[in-house]
Amino acid sequence: MAGTENTRFPESGMAPDTAYQLIHDETMLDGNSRLNLATFVGTWMDDAADKLYAESYDKNMIDKDEYPRTAAIEERAWRLIADLWNAPDAKAAIGTSTIGSSEACMLGGLALKRNWQHARRDAGKPADKPNLVMSSAVQVCWEKFCNYWDVEMRLVPLTEEHKVLDGHDLERYVDENTIGVVAIMGVTYTGMYEPVAQIAAALDEIQAKSGLDIPIHVDGASGAMIAPFLQPDLVWDFRLERVHSISTSGHKYGLVYPGVGWVIWRDEQRLPEDLVFRVSYLGGDMPTFALNFSRPGAQILLQYYLFLRLGRAGYTVVQRGAQDVAHFLAKGIQGTGAFDLWNDGSDIPVFAWRLKAGHTSNWNLYHLSERLRMRGWLVPAYPMPDNLGDLTVQRVVVRQGLSMDLARDLLADIVTETASLDALKSPMPMEDVHPTFHH
C-alpha cells in the first residue's frame, strides 16, 4: 500500500506497527521543520505543552456542552487577547477562536461587509457592489475572501517609495461602497508593519472631506503577537477608534502548534447579530460564529497554557530573543557585500534582502536558495507583488527554536555558498529556477 503510485483503497489492514513504520519512514524524507525558514508557523513547544496536547487532542472545540471547561478557557483566552490589544473594555469586546488567521480574516471581512450592507439598506441605498481596500502584498486569504463573498478587491500597489500600505493616495481607492481597509501587522513578503495609525489618519481626513466613515480591520497574523511585547508604545490596535476588528494566528508568534487563530471585535455592535448562529448540539444551546464547526480544542488549551506560563514578561523575552537573532542575521547578510536589505527585522523578526544591483549576472537568489536547500535550509526566494514584480527577494522568518547557534551556522552557509557562486566563471542555468515559496 505504501507509495504515491498506489491509488486503490486497501482490501485488508496490517499490523499497527507496520502501518506506523511505513508512514514514519516515508515522512523521514520531509525537510526538518526547525530549519524551515519559509514558514511563520510554530514548530516547537516545551514538554509540558506536549503533555497537555496529548491529554486533549480528542476534544472537539465546538462541543461546548460536552467540554464546558474548554469552552470557558476559550472565552478567557480571547478576553485576555482583547486586553492585550487595548480594547476599551475587554468585558464588552467579543471574539472567538478559529482554525487559523485565514478563518479569522474571513470572519473580520464578513462583519465589515454585513455592517456596510445594513447601513446602506437602512439609508435606502444599493448594497450590491462592496469593495475592500488593501495592499497588493496581502496574504492570499484576502483574495479568497473577496472571491468567495463577492467583494471587489482594490489593491494599492507597493513601490520603492511606499514599501507598505501607508495611507498614500488612499482617497483614490475608497468610495461609498468601501466596506473597510485592511492593514497588515507584518506583511507576508517582508515582515514589515503597515502603519495603522497613519492609515487611520488618512481615513480621518477622507471622512472630514467626504463624510465616508470607513473602518479598519487589522490583519495581525504575526505582528499582533509581537507588537504588544516588543513595541508596546506603537499605536496600531483598539486604541484607534477606527479599528473595528483584529485577527491573529495563535500558531505563529502566539507560539502554539498549527491549528489556532483568534479574531476580536472592539464591541458587540461591530459583530452583526445576524452572523451569529444559535444551535442545538448534543443537548446544549450555544452561539457560534466561526466558519468551521468541528475543530480541535487542544490548541486553545495550549494557547491559554502559554498565556499562564509566559505572561507579558515571558512573551517579551521569547520575542526579543527571536528579534535579536533576526538582527544578527540581517547584519551578517548585509555584511557580505552581495546583498541589500529590504528591511532588517525591526518590526516582526522577519527580514528580506535582494541581490545588490550590478553584483553579478552569473547567478540569482533562486540559485542561492537551491544551494541552501542542499544544506538543509529552506530559505525562500520569490518575486515581489505587482509593480515590483521584477524584484526578487529572499526572506528569513526567525521563530522560537532558531537559536543563535543555528543562526551562526545558517549565516556561515550563506557566506560560503555566496562565495562559491561568486567564483563562477560563467552563468548558472536560468531555465529551471523558480520561486520557492508561494503567498
Automatic annotation (TrEMBL):
Record's keyword annotation contains Lyase: yes
Keywords: Decarboxylase, Lyase, Pyridoxal phosphate
InterPro entries to which the protein is assigned, alphabetical: Glutamate_decarboxylase (IPR010107), PyrdxlP-dep_de-COase (IPR002129), PyrdxlP-dep_Trfase (IPR015424), PyrdxlP-dep_Trfase_major (IPR015421)
EC assignment: 4.1.1.15
Molecular function in Gene Ontology: glutamate decarboxylase activity
Signal peptide: none
Catalysed reaction, written as an equation: L-glutamate + H(+) = 4-aminobutanoate + CO2
Record keyword Chloroplast present: no
Cofactor: pyridoxal 5'-phosphate
Annotated family: Belongs to the group II decarboxylase family.
PANTHER family on file: GLUTAMATE DECARBOXYLASE
Protein name (record): Glutamate decarboxylase
Taxonomic source organism: Luethyella okanaganae
